[in-house]
Each structure stands twice: as C-alpha cells, then as structure tokens.
Amino acid sequence: MTSTSPSRVSLADVTPPIALGPLDGRYRGAVAPLVDHLSEAALNRARIHVEVEWLITLCNGSVVPGAPTLSDDEVAYLRQIPATFGADEIAELAAIERETVHDVKAVEYFIKRRIAVASETIPGTNLPAAAELVHFACTSEDINNLSYALMVAGAIREVWLPAATELADQVADMARELADVPMLSRTHGQPATPTTLGKELAVLAHRLRRQLHRVQGAEFLGKLNGATGTYGAHVVAVPSADWPAVSKAFVEGLGLTWNPLTTQIESHDWQAEVYADVARYNRILHNLATDVWTYISMGFFTQIPVAGATGSSTMPHKVNPIRFENAEANLEISCSLLDTLGATLVTSRLQRDLTDSTTQRNIGPAFGHSLLAIDNVRRGLKALHANAALMAEDLDQNWEVLGEPIQSAMRAASVAGVAGMENPYERLKDLTRGQRVDAARMREFVGSLGLPSDVEERLQALTPASYTGLAARLVADYLG
C-alpha cells in the first residue's frame, strides 16, 4: 500500500517573498546598510545619478552647441530623480526594463519620462529640449563603470571601513588592557617563550590596521569615452569639443579617478586591487578568529554567558564560541567571492565581453559576508574575559622555557671572558628537551654555572611569568 504525502505550500509563492540566501534572510540586520550601496536598486539609482549629471554637464558646460542652459530649478529637478528613487520608482523602472530587455536603456527612458512632465513642476521649462541629450554618445559601460565605482566607493567608505576600523580599534583596546597579562606562547603547538596576551592581540590589531590603511588609499577609476574608448561618436557629433578634457572633468567631478585609456569597458584593475586588500583583511581577521577560538578552548579566555542562551542542545554546561566559528565561515565565503571577482574582472575578450556584468552583481554578497563576520567577531570579543589565573598556572608548569634566556646569558658571559660557559645551548638542551623542569631544578642548575653574581641574581629571580621581555612596552610604543 502506497502512502500519499499531502501537497506542500510552495515557499516560492509566499508573500512577502522569502530570501534565498542568508544575507537577505537570517542575517539581514547585520548587512542591511550595504543595500543602499550594492543592491540592484542601488545600481539603478547610481545609473540615474550618472545619467543626470552627464546631462547637466552637456547643457551647462557649453559642450553641445544649441543645448539649453539649465536653470537652478531645472538642475534641482533633475537631481531629485535619483534622490527620490524609492519603491514605486523601482517598480516602474522594472516594468520599463521588461519592455526594453536592457537595463541601461530602461534607465534612459525612465529619465526621459521625468523630463517629459517637468513642466508640471517648472512652468515654461526648457528641459524637454534637452531630452535627446540623455545618454548622449554613451555606451552602457560608460554609465555602468561609473555607477559601480560610486557604489563600491560608497560601500567601502560609509559601511565596510567604519565597521572594519571599529573592530581593529576594539582589538587594539583589548591589547592595551591586557598588555601586562603574561601568557605562555605556543610555537608549533609547543610551549615557547612567554609573551603577554595583550602583545599577541596587538600584533593582530597592527596587521588589521595596515590593511585598512591600504583600503583607505584605494583609487576608484572611471571612464566615459564611448563604445570602444575612442570618443568616436562624440567627435562625429560635436567635433568642436575637447572630449578627453570633458570626460576627465566629468569623472573627477563625480569624485573618481579618470582612466584615459580603455576598451569599451573600464579595465576593472582597481577593483581587483581593492578586493585583494579587503580579502587580506578578511584573512587576518580569520587568523584572529582561529587564535581566539584556540585561547577559548585552552581556557585563557572565558565566555560570559548570555542569559537564556543555549550552548548545546544536549550539554547544558557548554558556551560555544559560535561568533568566531560563524566569522570563520563567512570570511572564507567572502574571500572566495573577492578572489573570483579580482581574477575574473581583469580579463575581457578583445574590446568587450559580458562576464564582468554578471560577476559584478556579486560584489554585494562578497562585502556582505565580510561585514557579517566583522559583526560576529565584535560581538564575540565583547563577551570574553581573560583568565589570568589559568595563564599563570600554565606558565608555572613550564619552567623549561627559561632554557632560552639562561643559555643566552651564558653566551654573553662567555664573550665577556667568564670561564666555564662552554656549550650553553647543548647543556640547556640536555636539561630541558623533552623533560619537565620545576623551579627548584632550574634554580639549582643556574646556581651551578659559576655566573657572575649580578647575572646569577637576575636569572634566579626570573620566572616564566616575568620572562615577557618588552611585550608590554611594545604594545604601548607601537600599537598607536
């Protein structure tokens, strides 16, 4: 007998629509600010902005003979078109695109609709006479490359950089707070020369800040030079204009760096450069997440429980380091996307192919996963408490790490002419390698060496917890 399952609700038909991916679903709150910069709607708003500014330039820059000079009211009217681009306008533009089957052409028609009704707002306006200058001499990529440059610049400067900087500053603050807390190092996973917890965090903060400095100095390039970068249509239509000069002034007026030599597309090299720097920040942050996760597993950091939260569905005692694990996964996804963007965008067959068009639609998810990871790490760090007592206990169980300073002191004494300092490394190796040495045995060994009294006194006073060198000073002097 065959059982028949009841028919299921089609989730694809549920209203409001259900997000396919986690960035627009589960994690929407953490990444929502990017929607203003890297969404499809933001792309269309940027296109409208570029088209409007180009129209204003052609009319009021004495570029095209006979073009009407626009009044302040007419300029303001045009600039309100992108400024008021909201839900209704998004739907209207989508309807136009369904007819044109071309996204940039739809933007042109959308603007021309607004120009056609300008007289309702500005009696006697000359704007309709300028309608044919919308998208004048432009290929779609003239509009798209400038739009993406503005979008990415805005997303980085207004959303990603502030969040990434706040995280680096948070790590730096923790480094200063914990600069004097001694901790046993692990190199190759083995007990090694002590450091301080703050100094190790300072290393990560310094690395993050260095990448932020590179991102802050990024160039965002743009071009406006026609179908194959030759100003062909421009020169035929208006031979009197100095089109490279017009293009340069326009691109720089948008706050971008002008690229004078391109094919149909702006070459996207700047995108590859900035994505590589963001990905490198991601990877350093990934290193921080794995290190902090390890410190938590060792008990050096304890996590402050959140009231009502569940660490495990079966083990009530657990407080899982989920913020850092979530960050790891999202950083890996972000880096994969950024690497793909950087690798794909720098290549275009001959004068143009469309691989970049589809690829660039994934810029938002690339930054979204990075922003989500940053949010998780920041929240995870806020819930940490340094367990100085356990770190002190760990240090006290590893006196053999003092083999390094003792043999170094013996070397210095030998150079100074002290007898009996032969083979210092080998003697400490025999004492410590593969063996546990307690305080009494180490001090007995130091006392047997025949060192000068001041050196012996210094070494006898040394403990694993006090053997942190200049760690605290390095945090104070160089973290900034």
From TrEMBL:
It catalyses: (2S)-2-[5-amino-1-(5-phospho-beta-D-ribosyl)imidazole-4-carboxamido]succinate = 5-amino-1-(5-phospho-beta-D-ribosyl)imidazole-4-carboxamide + fumarate; N(6)-(1,2-dicarboxyethyl)-AMP = fumarate + AMP. PROSITE patterns: FUMARATE_LYASES (PS00163). Residues 25-327 form the Fumarate lyase N-terminal domain. Keywords: Lyase, Purine biosynthesis. It comes from Xylanimonas cellulosilytica (strain DSM 15894 / JCM 12276 / CECT 5975 / KCTC 9989 / LMG 20990 / NBRC 107835 / XIL07). One of its GO terms (molecular function) is N6-(1,2-dicarboxyethyl)AMP AMP-lyase (fumarate-forming) activity. Pathway: Purine metabolism; AMP biosynthesis via de novo pathway; AMP from IMP: step 2/2; Purine metabolism; IMP biosynthesis via de novo pathway; 5-amino-1-(5-phospho-D-ribosyl)imidazole-4-carboxamide from 5-amino-1-(5-phospho-D-ribosyl)imidazole-4-carboxylate: step 2/2. Its EC number is 4.3.2.2. Pfam families: ASL_C, Lyase_1. Gene3D superfamilies: Fumarase/aspartase (C-terminal domain) (1.10.40.30), Fumarase/aspartase (Central domain) (1.20.200.10), Fumarase/aspartase (N-terminal domain) (1.10.275.10). This is Adenylosuccinate lyase. InterPro entries: Fumarase/histidase_N, Fumarate_lyase_CS, Fumarate_lyase_fam, Fumarate_lyase_N, L-Aspartase-like, Pur_lyase, PurB_bact, PurB_C. The keyword Lyase applies. One of its GO terms (biological process) is 'de novo' IMP biosynthetic process. CDD domains: PurB. Belongs to the lyase 1 family. Adenylosuccinate lyase subfamily. Residues 348-468 form the Adenylosuccinate lyase PurB C-terminal domain. The keyword Cell inner membrane does not apply. Signal peptide: none annotated. Catalyzes two reactions in de novo purine nucleotide biosynthesis. Catalyzes the breakdown of 5-aminoimidazole- (N-succinylocarboxamide) ribotide (SAICAR or 2-[5-amino-1-(5-phospho-beta-D-ribosyl)imidazole-4-carboxamido]succinate) to 5-aminoimidazole-4-carboxamide ribotide (AICAR or 5-amino-1-(5-phospho-beta-D-ribosyl)imidazole-4-carboxamide) and fumarate, and of adenylosuccinate (ADS or N(6)-(1,2-dicarboxyethyl)-AMP) to adenosine monophosphate (AMP) and fumarate.
